[in-house]
Amino acid sequence: MTRTAGYKTPVSVLVVVHTAAGEVLLLERATPPGFWQSVTGSLEPGETPQQAARRELEEETGLTTEAGEFRDHRHSVRFPILPAWRHRYAPDVRENTEHWFSLRLPRQLPIRLSPAEHRDLHWLGWRAAAAQASSWTNRDAILALGAELDAG
């Protein structure tokens, strides 16, 4: 997919950061307040989803994939872009494709937030994190991961 000059590419990544014990990292967006999510972001020109996931992880948390077990779930979902964020995309773009990744850490590690993007963070059990996630795609990704964690 090509990027229209000045607009975001309608392809993004979601990276669920979690511990071996099933604690999930959620980040509160700077705007709008109260919007909780995992690591997310759009692909830059020429990036693969895996490259974007690694970049966004480091930009939003200070973590690198070497901190734990990085996994490409080889799963993507399409969703309508919320009206409040549609201005970031070319006028004819209405949907985004999101690719799912995860990073399993041995334990909670220090997180470096990017104040321009996020204002707070929580480590929550996966069920509580799924309930607090603001988007349905993020909730579904956490629930799928939680089911895998429970299955052992």
Automatic annotation (TrEMBL):
It comes from Azoarcus indigens. It comes from the Bacteria. Keywords: Hydrolase, Magnesium, Metal-binding. Substrate binds at K8, R29, T40, S135. Belongs to the Nudix hydrolase family. InterPro entries: DHNTPase (IPR003564), Nudix_hydrolase (IPR020476), NUDIX_hydrolase-like_dom_sf (IPR015797), NUDIX_hydrolase_CS (IPR020084), NUDIX_hydrolase_dom (IPR000086). This is Dihydroneopterin triphosphate pyrophosphatase. Mg(2+) binds at E56, E60, E117. The keyword Hydrolase applies. Its cofactor is Mg(2+). One of its GO terms (molecular function) is dihydroneopterin triphosphate pyrophosphohydrolase activity. Binds 1 Mg(2+) ion per subunit. Residues 6-146 form the Nudix hydrolase domain. PROSITE patterns: NUDIX (PS51462), NUDIX_BOX (PS00893). One of its GO terms (biological process) is folic acid biosynthetic process.
